[in-house]
Amino acid sequence: MPVPGADSASRCLGKWASYLCSPLSAVALQSAPTAAVLQCARAKCQELQKLDVSSSKTQLPVEHLRAAEQHLAVVERWLTGDESALAGGALTVSTRSGQSSSAKVPTQVPEQAERLFRDLGLSDDLERGPEADEFWRVCAPHPPGEIFLKSISCSAKSRNFRYVGKIYISSLRICFHSNLVGVETEFALSWNDISSLRLMQEVQGNTFPVRISTKTEINFDGDDVKELDIRIFDFSGLGALHKSTMYFLGTDLFGMWQKVQDEPLVPAVRVVRSKSCDMQAITTEM
Question: Domain GRAM spans what residues (predicted)?
Answer without folding.
Answer: 133-201
